[in-house]
Amino acid sequence: MHSLIVKILKKLFLQVIQIQVLCFITLGTLIQIKSNGNHHRKGHDIMNYIKRISVLLLAAFCMVAGTQAIQAEETTRVSFTNEENKTPDLFITKHVESADDRYEVPKDVAFKFVLKLNGKLANKEQYRVFNENGDEVYNHQDGTISTETTNKIPFMTDRNGNFTLYGGYTAKFEYVGNGVSYEILELPQENFQQVSPAAGTSAIGTIKPDGARVEFVNLYMPYVEQKTTDLIVTKHISFPQGYVYDGEDSFHFTLKLEGKAYADEAYTIKDSNTGEEVKEARTDENGRFTLKGGQSAVFKEVKADVDYEVVEENAEGWRVLGDVKQSGATQAPVTAVQYTNAIASFGVNKTMSDKSTSEETFTFLLMDHMKKAWSNAKYVLYDSVSGKRVDNVTYTTDENGHFTLKANETAMFLGIAPGTLYDVQEIVKPGYIQKTPVSNEGYENKVVGDNVEILPFVNEKMKEEGILSVTKLIENKTDEIPMDDIKFTFVLSRKNGDVYEAVKNANYVIALGDSESTYKTNEAGEFQIKGNQTALFRELKQKETYKVEEKQTNVEYTIKTEAQEEVLEKNIQFLYTNEYTPKAIDLYLKKANREKEGIAGAKFTLYRDKELTNAIASYESETEEKCMLENVRAGTYYLKETQSPKGYRLLEGVIKIEITREEGTGKLLVKINEKEYGQSEGNEQIQIETKKVGENDELHMVVYNDKHFWIPITGGTGMYVLIGIAMIGSIGALVALRKKVKMEH
């Protein structure tokens, strides 16, 4: 709606300018005619003419502006479609424990949280609340919370996604959505320290078909004035909920007290979950001590109100969630120092919609931030039902970024740094329909976070009979991932005697999660699907012989499967494979002024995504053209100028570049901001030229910059400058006109 209003206003502004220009040209001409024709006309007669013409011009303006607004309104349609919500739930539970058995945890403390869904604050989301006994409690108009049902009002997040929970309570957000990502952050609370997830970190994940459960755990540590304290250093292992980490890795720390190594001092190692004593130990001459995951080091009778410093040493493959150095002043009765380490980065989970198991394997593709195959990425296998390791083997993705899973298995990827971008896609398997995620492209532009996200892939086995299915697979032996919007053309025909006839206007569907898109074959029996898709023909005559043949339409894909034919009894599953042989494209860029002279000092960034989060190349202009990026594939890119040359205006907006190839010929085709351009063509913003040099294609782009006082013809800030000039000109013309009228009068 906002963009529509802006468009209408811009059109109105332009109409104002046009009408003003017409007005002054007309008035000037009229006055000149009247002055030459009759010097004795009185001033009031001229003013009458002016008034009449002004009224007519104003009416014309209103008509044109109104027409423009109506046209804008008519050509912009916004539709909203509602359907029944049948999605899983999100449960958030709050647990509070005492750091010392001498102190009872207060029951009346409300803990504050912030909820995000799909990256956006959960504004005015209703939720239900259950106490520690599992009984539902209700919010009341007087601010109380109880099991009473009278005068109840719904629990609801505020516009910033904030909500509260008491210790032992659970919030239930219903119908959140299968595949929806969530992020939950707990806000700090005095006398309480968050231990799970690690202090200062969020709980991040994706809603599965059967929902998601998140737990927040805090330690109660009241301040008590005392001469000594127990200094407790605890090592937690952050691992995805529902999965058991059973490693025996050791972690090393150094302790300083009042700036000196706490050397040769006794401490007790305890199991941090049960409180049971494991053994007694002593620090070395450097104050060094060792813990395993789930253990605590307890230093008894340490001075209170003195400075301490704890530093964790780097452990290969592990990352510390938070600071490796923690310091402060010791305080009675307990000084608690929490360290949380993580080794898992993300997980990929495979399940069937009916919870069944089988020995069949499903293949997945892991890609890096450049959309290239990610080879040799380490992962371990878990049983997602029991949460335990399948075996003690550490696997790696193959040279093409592939890995395999069975139903109810999870690949847990290890040692990938936070902030790393990645994509995961399931390779389509004949006889199965992917329900989650909806897109066949899988999960795109995911980011490794401090909390491990498990990405669910849910399939459903086809149970219908009498279906002819055609599945397209891409065999890729390079690290370049094919474009996901290339369509492949097939011909469906039916045997009639000794010949095959095209099956015209036959319905087929392409499943997308729980929905389907329906299409028809054309008069030649042709139909199209993309790589990693399956076309389902459900309405074909049974007991007939059908043939499917693929047409060669793209030079980058070599057909490896010949025509297939079979009698339709129960089901037919045709699988077609193409080998991807990408042809390189070199991208050249030059910055120029309006005189087409090269200028230096402009900085550009090339992105893979429209959100401008996945940068793949940067460029600083010189006076001459130079190569920005070599050996790129066809695809969609976004070019943003981040610094303009001195004395020039920064280029507004983003340049969208779409590179494709013509079917059959493989000729390079280019779109700039949705407009198709020929081999050598451009506009006031950009000029492009495509070339064939040896085995490579080249795309040459010249991007123009305007000097600071250049007034563009279309849109931008220059439009407002133009309006200002027009207004000043209008005032000047009116003053001159009034003087002339007075003189004549």
Question: What would you note in describing this structure?
Answer:
There is one protein chain. The strands form eleven sheets. Strands 1, 4, 5, 6, 7, 8, 10, 12 and 14 form a nine-stranded mixed β-sheet that branches. Strands 19-18-21-15-25-23 form a six-stranded mixed β-sheet, with no helix packed on it. It has six domains: 1-82 and 711-745, no CATH class; 90-220, Immunoglobulin-like (Sandwich), CATH 2.60.40; 228-341, Immunoglobulin-like (Sandwich); 344-461, Immunoglobulin-like, CATH 2.60.40; 467-475 and 482-580, Immunoglobulin-like; 585-704, Sandwich (Immunoglobulin-like), CATH 2.60.40. It contains three helices and 57 strands. With 745 residues, it is mainly beta. A hairpin with a 2-residue loop joins strand 39 and strand 40.
Write the layout of secondary structure elements.
Blueprint: H1 2-37, H2 43-75, E1 90-98, E2 110-117, E3 120-121, E4 126-130, E5 136-140, E6 145-146, E7 152-153, E8 155-156, E9 162-166, E10 170-173, E11 181-186, E12 192-196, E13 203-206, E14 212-220, E15 228-238, E16 250-257, E17 260-261, E18 266-271, E19 277-282, E20 288-292, E21 295-303, E22 307-312, E23 319-320, E24 325-329, E25 334-342, E26 344-352, E27 361-367, E28 378-383, E29 395-396, E30 402-406, E31 409-414, E32 421-426, E33 432-436, E34 443-447, E35 453-461, E36 467-476, E37 487-496, E38 499-502, E39 507-512, E40 515-520, E41 526-530, E42 534-537, E43 545-550, E44 557-559, E45 564-567, E46 571-580, E47 585-592, E48 603-607, E49 615-620, E50 626-632, E51 635-643, E52 655-661, E53 668-672, E54 675-677, E55 680-682, E56 686-693, E57 696-704, H3 718-744
Parallel strand pairs: 1-14, 15-25, 26-35, 36-46, 47-57
Antiparallel strand pairs: 1-10, 2-3, 2-9, 2-11, 4-5, 4-8, 4-10, 5-6, 5-7, 11-13, 12-14, 15-21, 16-17, 16-20, 16-22, 18-19, 18-21, 22-24, 23-25, 26-31, 27-30, 27-32, 28-29, 28-31, 32-34, 33-35, 36-42, 37-38, 37-41, 37-43, 39-40, 43-45, 44-46, 47-50, 48-49, 48-51, 51-52, 52-53, 53-54, 55-56, ...
Helix pairs in contact: 1-2, 1-3, 2-3
